[in-house]
User: Fold this.
Amino acid sequence: MVDVAVPVRARELHLVGRPDPDVSEDHFAEVEAEVGEPGEGQVLVRNEWMLLSVVLKDLMETEPNPDLPMPAYALGEPPWAPTVGTVVVSRHPEVAEGDLVFHNQGFRQYAITGIGEWEGTRLDRDALPSPQHHLLISPGMTAWRGMVTVAGVGEGDTVFVSGATSGVGSMAGQIARCRGAAKVIGSTGSKDKVDYLRDLGFDDAFDYHDGSLTERLAELAPDGIDVFFDNVGGDQFSAALANAAEGARFALCGTLSRDNPVLEHETVIVKGMTIRGFISVYEPGDQEEFTAALGRWLRDGRFVFAPTVVEGGLAAVPKALVEQLGRRARGVTMVKLSDD
Amino acid sequence: MVDVAVPVRARELHLVGRPDPDVSEDHFAEVEAEVGEPGEGQVLVRNEWMLLSVVLKDLMETEPNPDLPMPAYALGEPPWAPTVGTVVVSRHPEVAEGDLVFHNQGFRQYAITGIGEWEGTRLDRDALPSPQHHLLISPGMTAWRGMVTVAGVGEGDTVFVSGATSGVGSMAGQIARCRGAAKVIGSTGSKDKVDYLRDLGFDDAFDYHDGSLTERLAELAPDGIDVFFDNVGGDQFSAALANAAEGARFALCGTLSRDNPVLEHETVIVKGMTIRGFISVYEPGDQEEFTAALGRWLRDGRFVFAPTVVEGGLAAVPKALVEQLGRRARGVTMVKLSDD
Assistant:
C-alpha cells in the first residue's frame, strides 16, 4: 500500500452545459462522488496532472466535430482528459501500488481504470524527471509523429511550424531542434507568444498578423523550408509552399484556419515535394523511442519544459478552460490535481 | 563488324522554325550530313527507333518552359530525342558492334555517342523482346517512379490515372495492373481514347468532358481511390481528392490543366493522405528492376504493347509531330527510323 489515505468520497467536475457559442464557467459543476473500489484487473489511481486540450471545445459541442477521432463529452459526467496519477490500490497483477499510470479519466481526483491498450497504461516513472513530464507524451507523440515519422526531420533542416504555441506545435518545434534542425521558425498570433517561442528555443518566430507571410518566410528562410509542420492551413500553407525547398516535406496536423489554400500543383511536382496529412495514431514502439529521447533532452536541458500550469486543483479548471479557449494559453496546458 | 554497310552521308531532321503558336511541318527540314567516325571511347549507332515526347512542343519554343528539367531545342540542329539503335562501329572497350544502345541523339539516321551516365547507355538486348520495346523504358521509368517508388502501388489498390492515354499515363495504368491493383481507372479526352484504354486493360475509363468528374469517380470507385497518378491537376485532382480512400497516395506527375485546384486541407489530414510531386529522376537500380519486370510482363502477355507507331522514317516525322501535338496520339509514340 502507498502511504496515502484514500477517502471514501472525492470531487469530480461534471459537464452540465454546452457552448452557446462560447464556453463559460457555468458549463461545469463540482460534484462529490464515491471513490469506489477497483475490481479484479483494475487499479485505483490518485490523479496528479491532467491535460487541457485545444480540441476540448469541439468535444463539448452538441454536434461534435466529426473529423476528430475522439469521443465527444456527455452531459452529467466528467469529461475525459489525458491524466497521470499514482496507483493507490492495485488489483492488477502487473501493476504495483506506487506505480505511475496514464489514463483518460480526467476531471476527477480519483479514477478506477483497467490496464490495457484502450484503458490505462503503466508508465515507467523513471523514464522522465517527474510525473508532470509524462503528460507531455500525449501532445508530444502527435508532434513526434508529424516531425519524425511523417516529415523525417533531421540534421540541417530548415523547419517552419505554424500555430507553434499550441501544445503540439511547441513540442514539434522543440523536437525538430533537438533532432538537429539547422533553423526552427514558428508562427503565432501575438507578440507575447512570439517571445514565448523564443524562450522555448525557436530560432525565429513571428506574429502572422504582421505583413506578408510569404515575404516574412522568404526573409527568415532564404534557402527555403525543408520541413513544414502545419497546424493552420490557409495562408500559412500557401506561404510555406511558396517558400518550399526542393524535396520539402509538409506534415499537415490541423486546420485552425478554415480557409482552404490553392495548391500550386506544378510547384509540388517541380520541387519534388511531399505533403502528408496525419492523425495522431501511432505504434507503441514509437512511444518508447519518443519517451527515451524526451527523457534525454529534458535531463540535458535541451528540451525547455515551460507548460502553462493551472494550480488550485479541480476548482480552478472552469476558469482556466475559458482562458485557454480564449487562446491565452501557451504551450502544453496542465492542471495540477493533487497537492503532492 | 556488324554486317551493315555504313554510308558516308545520312539524313537528319533539323529544327528550322518555332511554334507560332502551333507547330507545322515547315518547322523541320531534312538535311544530309556526314556520318563521321567515332572517336576513342565512342560508338557509331545506326538508329532504329525514336520516341516522340509530349513535351516536344515546349522544347521547341523560343522561351522554353523553365519547369522542364530538360534542355530546349536549338535552331539549325536535330532536336534531341530518346532513341535506340545498334552499334555498327565501336571504339569503346565495353561495347561491342551489334550491341543495342540507348541515347538522346534522335532525329537522325546515325549517331555518334559516348557511353556513360549522361551520354549513351548499353542495353541488355535480351531483357526485352525487341529493340522497339526498349524505348518503353524512358516513359516507363517515369510511370514506375510515380506508381511504385512514390505511390507504392500494390495488391488490391484502386487506382486512378488522369491523362491516361499519354505515354507515361498509359504505362502507369498498366504497371499498376501488373502489380496487382484491384481496379485501374483512366481518364482521357475522347471516346476513341476511352476505347484505347480498355484495350490496354484498364478496368474502366471515361472521357473527362462527360459530366461531373467527382460523381463519375464515386460511381467507379465506391470504396475510394487508393492511388492517384496525376498528369493533369485542376478539376481532376479535386475529384480524386474528394474520392480519396483513407491513406490514399497521390503521385503528381504533370499539370496539363493549368488550373490550380483548391486543397481540402482537413480532408488530407483526416484521410491521412500523402500527396507527392516528382520529376523523372531515378536510380540505376530502379531501372534494372523495372526492365526485368517489364520483360516478364511483355513475355507473359500481361503488359499490352500498343504504341502509336510512325512508319516511313524521318520523312514521316514532321506530319506525325503535328498530329501528336494535336493530341491524336495514343500511348507511347515511336518513330521507326530504319527498315530492318
Summary: Chain B has two domains: 9-136+307-336, 138-277.
